[in-house]
Specification:
With 175 residues, the protein is of the alpha+beta class. The protein contains four helices and ten strands. 25% of the residues lie in helices and 26% in strands. Strand 6 and strand 7 form a beta hairpin.
Length: 175
Amino acid sequence: MSRAVLSLGSNLGDRIAHLRTAVAVLGDHVLMASGVYETPPWGDADQPAYLNAVLLVADPDAGPHDWLSRARAAERAADRVRDPQRRFGPRTLDVDVIAVWGDDDEPVFSADPELTLPHPRAHLRAFVLRPWIDIQPYGQLPGHGWLTDLLTSGPAAAEVAELRPRPDLALESTT
């Protein structure tokens, strides 16, 4: 069975609806969804705040590039348009493949420029690590260590105070 951790982010339009779109597109493959957090923009501060969450997904037939294809399908469903001039710019939906584990439950490592695994900046991003801890409190980012250590004493620690839990928002649709 292939498992993956996917990071979701949206800062344009109906942000929670865009996150829910990703959950709907991934469907029965979603095992767990984190809480939703409001976060300042990362990398390009001149844009609105984000809503972020993390999903744990599984599919016995999916490989790493299948997860990337599904992430992109979710982005397309939210009308995501990539701006090549603004790498960390605003977006309706961003879905990143953070980590993948194979049938043997071993982490997948990849230096493929299209899909580097684990995600090369995940250890730097509190908006990935904190929601991930919601669903895997004893989780580890392959090649980097325990999520809790990365969040409390790693480079992401400085961003923790900027994360705002949004218990009023849930990824499951209420309709």
